[in-house]
Specification:
heterodimer, A: 4-stranded antiparallel β-sheet, B: mainly alpha, two-stranded antiparallel ribbon, globular
């Protein structure tokens, strides 16, 4: 872990240099310490998260619960012996990461959350969610300080890829918005890397 | 320097050396010696039994808070996992909750469950003020207008919410169990199924043993009465011979070949692992689990029969060595020690009448309710790929908060509303559920009303 922290620190230095140089996404100069920039790390993590969730949504939930109807997908998957919903799967994995690692953390937020605990609550989250509404499809990067620690915070648009996403949110009694459509940005995936 | 001053300096020096010497000496004492010197205050009901084993919670001298936190988890982690903890520590590790952690560090158990301060320790071992929920949920009425008039001092004592375990309290569960009758049509507890499970999962051939098969070594004199009791027992029927229990088993689980007249925990544990771990996790066995002498009723903080004060609690307290009757262990043995109102009113309750009737064959199997039915519930689990129903041997597993009983026990026979009302009624707990509940927990009503309002929209 220590080694990784050093890498992250080195990467952070390189990263802030890039930020100062005007948000360029170029590779760090050859003289910069070796390592992966926080933004690259966050982007890579998001790629994996998004791919895993899409596979689970399409190949497991949609196929077995939506089409073959051999099992249900339910919010109360334990009590009902059902599949966890894709968003729950995502959160469970994120909590599992939180148990084992402090190298990064991630969560799902939305301006229309089913659980109000998941509405944007830090300044960067509020700014990021607004940015994605104003710039559909664009990613948002920011440094923020939380509890005295600095973080590189990346927020990625969370787009409704399947009818499973929009139907469930539109029908849920706790959902503040009931007219989501496929392709809408329903919220954001927040990835934080300590600097 | 004046002579008087020197006198004071010498006095200060001597007292410092003495005090320092005393505490240093105390540091080298065993746990109980150290505890007498260092215990800062009276311990809570959950931990007082093991307060003399300081290192169980505190680790070694100068260990930090993370060691203490791990110590909490060493004993309570499984319980939190089984409860599907609503506020798991991992949720609070997310930096977006940093502002909340600054107010209340929910990543450490001791933030809410302080110790050695009995004066301020309440039922659940909580040492925070009752209205702690407000720190994060002050805006709850925005989402739940029904909560507008509610105060924050009884969120968890009104039968509606718990901090950790909401498995029987979440909204959709309440809705699912709406309008159930007080007594369900199929009112019975699940049957134990060891025989069925064992036959399905093991290829081992069981040969029942007779008195002549007893394999005790020659130097042991066998009591004919005990021998005939053994032959009639499930042990002999299941092919378990004398030496399997009476030969000492060491820490690593290997038989030493040394005969023990009175086998105890370690011997039983060799086969009855779940039962013994359950026993060790509850109030009956937690002292032994930490290497302390067995618990005695004299040390209990509840009322006990004086005649039972000096009994040592072990497997044999409830199960005799050879003539073990499960029914005796399910009631008779409990009330030989327990002398509180709830226990002494049991044999006046409907539960008891049904239990007697079940033994007389007047009602079906599983219709009766003994002490063990509620306090040692039968739980289903998957073992070796088959469902097994075992008897929980941790009597405290579902006791606090008592809503834990709703699913593990009450709802085998009763509807939801009746169950939650009964458990919230102090009078009923004292009279052992001999009268109908007079308390009304509103949560189910509120959940249904909200469901209807949302459906109407």
């Amino acid at each position: 872990m220590k080694r990784l922290n050093h890498t992250v620190l080195a990467a952070a230095l390189a990263g802030s240099a890039i930020v100062l140089a005007g948000c360029s996404q170029e590779e760090p100069a050859a003289s910069a310490p070796a390592g992966v920039s926080p933004q690259k790390m966050a982007d890579a993590l998001f790629t994996v998260m998004e791919a895993d969730r899409a596979v689970y949504t399409e190949k497991v939930v949609k196929r077995l619960a939506g089409e073959a109807k051999v099992i249900k997908a339910s919010e109360h998957w334990q009590d009902e012996v059902a599949l966890p919903l894709p968003a729950q799967m995502f959160r469970m994995a994120s909590e599992r990461v939180a148990e084992h690692s402090s190298d990064f953390s991630y969560s799902l937020i939305s301006a229309w959350p089913i659980n109000s605990q998941n509405e944007p609550k830090t300044d960067a989250e509020r700014e990021g969610v607004q940015f994605m509404q104003d710039n559909p499809g664009k990613r948002f990067y920011k440094e923020e300080t939380l509890g005295g620690n600095s973080y590189f915070t990346a927020i990625y648009p969370d787009v409704a890829v399947s009818s499973a996403c929009v139907d469930c949110h539109n029908d849920h009694k706790d959902s503040p918005k009931t007219d989501f459509q496929i392709g809408d940005t329903m919220g954001g995936v927040v990835i934080r890397i300590p600097l | 320097m004046k002579a008087a001053n020197i006198k004071w300096w010498v006095l200060w020096l001597i007292s410092s050396v003495l005090l320092g010497g005393y505490f240093s000496y105390a540091l080298w004492l065993d746990d109980s010696g150290r505890a007498e010197v260092f215990l800062p205050g009276e311990s809570s009901h959950g931990h007082y039994q093991i307060e003399l084993a300081c290192s169980v919670c505190h680790g070694e001298a100068f260990d930090g808070p993370e060691v203490m936190q791990q110590a909490c988890l060493n004993c309570h982690q499984q319980e939190l996992y089984d409860a599907d903890d609503s506020h798991p520590i991992k949720k609070f590790r997310d930096p977006r909750n940093a502002d909340r952690l600054a107010i209340l560090d929910a990543t450490m158990c001791v933030t809410c469950h302080g110790e050695h301060d009995r004066e301020i320790t309440r039922e659940m071992g909580v040492t925070l003020s009752d209205d702690f929920c407000i720190l994060c949920h002050e805006n709850v009425a925005d989402d739940r207008p029904s909560h507008k008039e509610k105060k924050f001092d009884n969120c968890s004592s009104a039968g509606c919410h718990n901090y950790h375990d909401n498995k029987a309290l979440y909204e959709d569960f309440l809705i699912k169990h709406a309008n159930e009758p007080s007594v369900l049509p199929e009112a019975k507890v699940p049957a134990r199924n060891f025989d069925e499970w064992f036959t399905k999962t093991s290829s081992k051939q069981i040969t029942p043993l007779k008195q002549a098969d007893a394999d005790a070594p020659d130097y042991v004199t066998l009591d004919p009465l005990e021998l005939s009791r053994w032959q009639a027992s499930a042990h002999a029927k299941g092919g378990v011979n004398c030496t399997e229990c009476h030969y000492q088993i060491d820490e690593s689980g290997v038989s030493t070949g040394q005969w023990l007249d009175r086998p105890e925990l370690m011997q039983c544990k060799a086969c009855h692992k779940d039962e013994v771990s359950g026993f060790e996790a509850g109030r009956h066995g937690m002292k032994m689990a930490q290497g302390l002498p067995a618990m005695t009723p004299a040390e209990a903080r509840q009322e006990m029969h004086k005649g039972a004060y000096n009994l040592n609690l072990g497997c044999n307290s409830c199960h005799d060595g050879h003539a073990y009757y499960l029914r005796q262990a399910a009631f008779d043995r409990c009330v030989e020690c327990h002398d509180d109102q709830h226990s002494s009113n049991y044999n006046k309750s409907k539960h008891y009448i049904l239990w007697r009737q079940e033994q007389e064959g007047l009602v079906g199997p599983g219709a009766g309710v003994s002490c063990a039915t509620c306090h040692m519930p039968r739980m289903e689990s998957m073992q070796r790929g088959e469902t097994r129903v075992t008897v929980t041997h941790n009597q405290n597993m579902n006791l606090r908060p008592n809503e834990k009983m709703i699913r593990s026990v009450c709802m085998n026979c009763h509807g939801y509303q009746f169950s939650v009302n009964s458990l919230a009624d102090e009078v009923l707990i004292k009279n052992n559920f001999s009268t109908p509940p007079t308390v009304n927990v509103e949560s189910q009503e509120m959940a249904l009303k909200r469901e209807q309002e949302k459906a109407g929209k």
